[in-house]
Amino acid sequence: MDKTFYTLSISGLNLHHVIEYFEREHFHAKNLSRTDKNTLFVTLPKSEYKKFRSENFARTFRIKIIKRSGNEETISSLLRHIGLFLGLIVAIASVVLCTNRIFAVELYEENHTCKNQQQCIFYGENKNKLLESLKDLGIAKGKSLPLRNSNREIEQKLIRQFKQISGVTIRQNGVKIVVEIKEATLREEEHISNLVSPVSGVIVTSTINSGKSHVKNGDIVLKGQTLVSPENNKNVSASFEIRTFYHETMVYSDNITSYKRTGKKYTINNIEFFGLKLKSNKKQPFKIYEAKTTKRYMFYNLFFPFTSTSTTFEELKKEETVVPFEQVEDILKQKLYAETKANLPSNVEEKNKTFATFKEKDKTRLDCYIEAIVTVSAT
């Protein structure tokens, strides 16, 4: 008989439906606890877990296995010990065979600030070309050590190939090669770039001093769309105001399920020695409960790692109440507005806010829209 158990983390709205399902199907649910209204922890036998996952309504929740115990865990423990021995052999062989190979190449970019924009040596295709050049010079994963070229030879070859490079330092840390690039500052005309829209919206106003405009007032633009491109080798100088909307939504249920402590508690103690757990055969008597586990050393000043694990179960009583959406509408709108406003960047001017509601049975969907003006410019 398979005695494998899964400890699950279940997240989502209306978790009381999950608990009601466990009760209706007579599941052997253990260690049922809730950290907040949207997160539930429970331990189920493997067969009941599979049945639960097969239900259509379970797809509306995020279900994650955080621990396995029982037969499956025992097998895994044996495999881990065998794997440890095999891993030790493989590790020794790897050290012997691979210490003369490069295992990693790192481009040092810490605190890097660049004025070369899209011509930056660490940007996109430029970085890929740099890595290919380093590979041709023998600096790549799997290449042999020591390096066949000196630091000075590598530096001279890269400077001749890339106008963005003014200096190169190569450091070897074991089987890892660190490449530090000193970047040259290009002339402004070498990195002229387009002015693009940071958001999707409608053009309200536009001022073009230099560059070729691709949009006009009233046009709908998408995020990343080019607004102005360079012309006659001159930098783009333009300014746009774009009207856009920021949106957040939430779903509220009139039926609120809460759990209150009854004051009844039950404690089970276990002992662990060198990873071997001596578990108590006691069963906690509560149907719905919260569990808290504490672990402490039995002998603080001795070498032997005897530990005592104490799990306290506290009984919970389910209470269901009905709170109509209209009673909490103002509070929910204020909360949702604050969440929506938090999405606005500092350079955005808020113009207006609106709310929309959609009700179906005992659930209400609330949407918040903030109309805003985004200013984007280049000089």
Explain the layout of strands and helices.
Elements: E1 5-11, H1 16-24, E2 30-36, E3 39-45, H2 46-54, E4 62-69, H3 71-98, E5 104-108, H4 124-136, H5 151-161, E6 165-173, E7 176-183, E8 195-196, E9 201-210, E10 212-213, E11 220-221, E12 226-229, E13 237-253, E14 255-273, E15 276-278, E16 289-297, E17 306-322, H6 325-341, E18 348-360, E19 363-378
Parallel strand pairs: 5-7
Antiparallel strand pairs: 1-3, 1-4, 2-3, 6-7, 8-12, 9-11, 9-13, 10-12, 13-19, 14-15, 14-17, 16-17, 18-19
Notes on the structure:
- The chain is an alpha+beta fold.
- Helix content is 23%, strand content 44%.
- The strands form five sheets. A five-stranded antiparallel beta sheet has the order 11-9-13-19-18, covered by helices on one side. It has a four-stranded antiparallel beta sheet with strand order 2-3-1-4.
- The longest helix has 28 residues, at 71-98.
- It is flat.
- The termini are far apart.
